[in-house]
Amino acid sequence: MFGTMAQSPDRVTADLTVRADQAKGTINRNIYGHFAEHLGRLVYDGIWVGEGSRIPNTRGMRTDVVAALKSLDIPVLRWPGGCFADEYHWRDGIGPRDQRPKRINTHWGGVIETNAFGTHEFMDLADQLGAAPYIAGNLGSGSPREMLEWMEYMTSDSDSELANLRRKNGRAQPWKVPYFGVGNENWGCGGNMRVEYYADEYRRFATYVKSYSGNRVVRIASGASDENYTWTDVMMSRVGRQMQGLSLHYYTLPTGDWNRKGPATGFDEAAWFATLKRTLRMDEFIAKHSEVMDKYDPEKRVGLMVDEWGTWYDPEPGTPGGGLFQQNSLRDALVAAINLNIFHKHADRVQMAAIAQMVNVLQAVILTQGEKMVLTPTYHVFEMFKVHQGATAIPIELTAPEYRVGQSAIPALHASASKDAAGAYHVSIVNLDANRAATVTMKVTGASPATVAGRVLTAGAIDAINAFDKPPAVTPAPFTAFQVQNGQVTLTLPSKSVVVLELK
Ligand code: AHR
């Protein structure tokens, strides 16, 4: 809701009501998921350096990166793609590493894929992170038999040839595979299919995604991108009960133009504004896809899995285009916070989300350069927001004033709230305005928290980044700009900031 209050040129004012008396459903932890594709320097370099590397590692996985990711409490990790998934043949990635075939990663720069990182390495990574594995299967160029056999290889405890092959390759116990994607973007890189054709293919392939030895698997169908509501409609009407999740992908491009997306840094306020405006559309897309899903599934049995989201800019100058390496600034922190707030709002339908992507690709939480590693502004949002994981969603009412650039206006503030198992409330508020601080008068209905504490993430410039060789410019600090009086909290949020409050 846009507010009508008078606003001064250097400060906006707003009212925020946290409806603690109207608690909704649970915010699924899986909304905080990540995505790791064989693309650019994500897997090779960002995670996998090999056991012989001088970079400290645990069974080939970078110790620094894994430790930093572990602090985010990542609930679920999607692998191996993306577009790569529909070209990946799982048998290439098992057995002695020096005997694995070298392939061409045709989708991402035509680079050589050594297959050094395969099923066993991925499962080890998921285990080191404490994340549930979400395997994306190959429907585009693979076969139902391949999917059937991969599931058996991973999850069967029997005396079958495939379970014994897994044992021979070093893993005695079967793994649990709780999530399996039956193809990816099959309207595009996953086979350029019409939705009616994919719906039939999905039914055929999903039949063979079997669960062995007590494994329970959630089958996720490849869904729409952006506002392709027809895709969702056809999938819901034709596939129905054979899927437990349907994906949605939406990338935020500053320009909206895939040929000229805009740079990750060195942008002006117009690009800042345009990016935030475009990212806010996630709310509309989820609401409308949910509306379509509600027609067929009013009990909300099928989850909407936003398993690719985030910013997509022009690649950093001097890096290969196929590597999708981009910087990550304060703008990305706000994009992350806004999207997570939106997922909380739609917690009844959104059961999972995965930011694209985890390390060194698109909106990464970590960037690496040789032995060096930085935590990006987006990382800090995931760390600050993790208090919402698995909490109860609490509705809010926000009279947000306008943030206007040229002829266009968006709300200057964006927020969400939740209550954790210990009874603490967390409120996350974003001030989108690049120039004006915001004075927010907040009240909580149905509860009387006695203490308030918080953290704030902001920086001097809209495109501030955490660089490899400098002290970090975007890092959380204690938030103290608030007063509590007669059960009302008055907060002053700096311009271009993210604040997470805890009320107990
Ligand atoms: O995340 C990069 C790519 O974006 C993925 O491979 C694909 O699914 C999407 O188009």
Low-confidence stretches: 1-6
CATH class of the largest domain: Alpha Beta
Mean of residue pLDDT? 96
Secondary structure tally, helices: 9
CATH fold descriptor of the largest domain: TIM Barrel
Distance between the termini: 27 Å
Percentage of residues in helical conformation: 10-25%
What is the radius of gyration computed over CA atoms, rounded to a whole number of angstroms? 23 Å
Overall 3D shape: globular
Structural class: alpha/beta
State the oligomer: single chain
- Name of the CATH architecture of the largest domain: Alpha-Beta Barrel
The major beta sheet can be summarized as: 8 strands, parallel, barrel
Please report the total strand number as a whole number.
27
Task: Give your account of this protein's structure.
- By secondary structure, the chain is an alpha/beta fold.
- The protein has two domains: 11-23 and 394-503, Immunoglobulin-like (Sandwich); 34-389, Glycosidases (TIM Barrel), CATH 3.20.20.
- Helix content is 23%, strand content 28%.
- The protein has nine helices and 27 strands.
- The strands form seven sheets. Strands 2-5-8-9-10-11-12-13 form an eight-stranded parallel β-barrel, surrounded by five helices. A six-stranded antiparallel β-sheet has the order 16-20-21-27-23-24, covered by helices on one side. The chain has a five-stranded mixed β-sheet with strand order 17-1-22-26-25, with no helix packed on it.
- A hairpin with a 5-residue loop joins strand 20 (413-419) and strand 21.
- Helix 6 packs parallel to helix 7 (269-296).
- Mean pLDDT is 96; it is low at 1-6.
- The chain binds alpha-L-arabinofuranose.
- Alpha-L-arabinofuranose (AHR) binds next to loops.
